[in-house]
Amino acid sequence: MAEFREKGPRGPVDHQKVPTRAAVFVPVFKQRTEADGRGTPGLEAVRRSDEARLAEAIGLAAAIDLDIVASAIVTGQKPQPAALLGSGKVEELKALVAAEQVGLVIIDHPLTPVQQRNLEKELETKVLDRTGLILEIFGRRARTKEGRLQVELAHLNYQRGRLVRSWTHLERQRGGAGFMGGPGETQIEADRRQLQEKIKRLEKELDQVRRTRQLHREKRRKRPHPIIALVGYTNAGKSTLFNRLTGADVMAKDLLFATLDPTLRKTVLPHGTEILFSDTVGFVSDLPTHLVAAFRATLEEVLEADLILHVRDVSDPDTLAQAEDVRRILRDLDVDTEDAEHVVEVWNKIDRLDEDERHRVSAARASLAEQGSAHLVSAVTGEGTDALLTDIEQRIAGHLTGVSVDVAPEAMNFIPWLYDNATVTKRDDGEDGVVRLRVKITTQARAKLHRVQQETSGITIAW
Ligand SMILES: Nc1nc2c(ncn2[C@@H]2O[C@H](COP(=O)(O)OP(=O)(O)OP(=O)(O)O)[C@@H](O)[C@H]2O)c(=O)[nH]1
């Protein structure tokens, strides 16, 4: 967890902007709330410690240009409707905020619009809740047009939710139904309409971008390369592993959500199988449902993957809770996380474990044996990655068969087809003009190859 604390704000540098002095507070209530529980019901063992929650919140805050000058776990009996925290606590925070000249307060808990407004008034600073913070981070990280549009849309939907809620809240205060008109309401109505229009415009634009991407995807689908998707909690080491496995140079920094847009890269496995690796957005606990929905399209890469690698940071004391969060989001996306054939766990950062911890992790892994194994790796040192690649190849090979193809000179035009529809693992250009190829091919492409062979003379195939 120290890892989070070491992080400085390393977002895209804006030289004109001095980092905002910020404070991070994690409310913890004796009377547990759903948001506070954060784990899966019944999974007490994986419930985050308060310290881990604080460390993560600081890490998230540091992911944007903030200078964290104060942080604390704030305990209370139960959430208060007015300002989430009781008035005594708010007073304490106010003093801290003033003493440290804090310009932004992050509350790692969902806030109702009323709570947010009241806290802003009391503390005399801007206040962000967890969703607001995650949206800020996403906004800064999105690179592609689609990514940017998705974030903007999620932001607007978030705002819309807050407008609607505060509006109904006003209604209730005024005595509820029957009250029509009035300046406040008209203004909110107008704001809502404007938001609605903007949302519609964005949705249309996004649709267009997606259609273009869909076309690319369909083109790719015709290719025979299996797709392996890397998923995992933010900072688990997906991009580092992606680089290690593909030799790519994707930004892998101590930067949360460095990968917001999916990145695809082709690589060749030890025995010559070509595959595409896809690096995807990092997950985080309490990812608001509408945000997951917004990224659904991006995550379609994951849904269509032949194999999903769930990358976990096993050096993080919170690794169990993080894994559970990732599984929950995957399940939301209709991925069967119990399917060990399809989802493989990769336990990363083992170089950070001492002897005892290694033992413990190995034992935990051994106990998994029945449900499919996990790979112990270090994306940084490369330990375990060869075995991982070999395992991937074995799993993928089930989908591919090897075929030998001899192409006579009169059928040379057929060779590019073969490169497009199969993975060529060996090629001999014989002196007799015959090109002898060894290829790996999907069942689908096999049927096509059979048809092409019947229509073209000069092709000999040993199935
Ligand atoms: N010691 C050690 N550090 C690692 C390892 N893998 C990744 N890291 C570090 O962990 C940090 C996060 O790595 P990334 O690869 O950016 O993580 P990610 O999962 O892609 O992060 P998001 O983009 O936030 O989803 C970086 O500082 C990496 O250098 C590992 O095997 N060992």
UniProtKB/TrEMBL annotation:
Protein's cellular compartments: Cytoplasm
Domain (Hflx-type G) ranges: 226-400
Coiled-coil parts of chain: 185-219
Keyword field contains Hydrolase: no
InterPro entries named among the record's database cross-references: G_HFLX_dom, GTP-bd, GTP-bd_M, GTPase_HflX, GTPase_HflX_N, GTPase_HflX_N_sf, HflX_C, P-loop_NTPase
Domain of life: Bacteria
UniProt keyword list: Coiled coil, Cytoplasm, GTP-binding, Magnesium, Metal-binding, Nucleotide-binding
UniProt-listed CDD domains: HflX
Keyword Signal: no
Assembly and binders: Monomer. Associates with the 50S ribosomal subunit.
Protein family per UniProt: Belongs to the TRAFAC class OBG-HflX-like GTPase superfamily. HflX GTPase family.
Biological function: GTPase that associates with the 50S ribosomal subunit and may have a role during protein synthesis or ribosome biogenesis.
PANTHER family: GTP-BINDING PROTEIN 6-RELATED, GTP-BINDING PROTEIN HFLX
Name used for this protein in its record: GTPase HflX
UniProt organism field: Jiella pelagia
Lineage, opening ranks: Bacteria, Pseudomonadati, Pseudomonadota, Alphaproteobacteria, Hyphomicrobiales
